[in-house]
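Following up on my earlier thread - several people asked me to post the actual chain instead of describing it. Fair enough. Here it is, all 248 residues.
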Amino acid sequence: MSNETSFTVNDMPKAERPRERLQKFGAEALSVQELLALIIGRGVAGRSVMTIAQELMARFGNAGGISEATIEELSRVKGVGLAKAAQLKACFELGKRKELETEYGYEDYDIKNPQTVVKAIRARIKDMKKEHFVLIALNTRNRIIGNIINISVGTLNASLVHPREVFKEAITRAASSVVLAHNHPSGDPEPSEEDLKITRRLIEAGRILGIEVLDHIIVGKHTVKSAITEHSKPEKEGYCSLKEKGLI
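Reply from S.P.:
Thanks for posting it. Predicted structure:
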């Protein structure tokens, strides 16, 4: 019998099993491997759930690495598959949304300046490996309506960020105005020509619909190193407001 089949959760003393430990001590007492095992639920033929959880940790490094992995990457681990990979992604997303809602209270958030927008969305998109384009729908008092809306994932272009998709969500929420935002995985928030082109297109579409585009924020890292010259600072903020720069 292989090592993978010789030890399962049922072989553990009952008091040491993840489910019983969580009930007795709370979720915070469990290791990441134990929490993963509880989410996955059970193993597969020839492979225990603890072994599967252990391989996830070995392959992706830590909880952060697992949370950033795609469903396809997670499903390549024997015993995970697409269904359990989706469960893992859903759990990490719930944790992220809970953190954001607790810290920022979106519906009561008053958008007054670019820094406020960055504070509201940075945790959501700054470390993504692909570009994530999001929409912030605002009421007449510049307060966020509901949650921040995901519009597209991938390198920004006119087909990914179409006015129809952007303003469909704004109209559904009866938004008075919107703020656009996306991340640059490179860490440098300077806008590309495509960023500017898409922004102008969306501003024009919003003007026709009567929904003002207040700004487009590009998020990079917290600070980005830049070349030091006589007229430059050694660091710049990890975001770019197209409105602040006079580009819209």
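The beta strands are 132-138, 149-153, 177-183, 212-225, 235-241. That should answer part of your original question.
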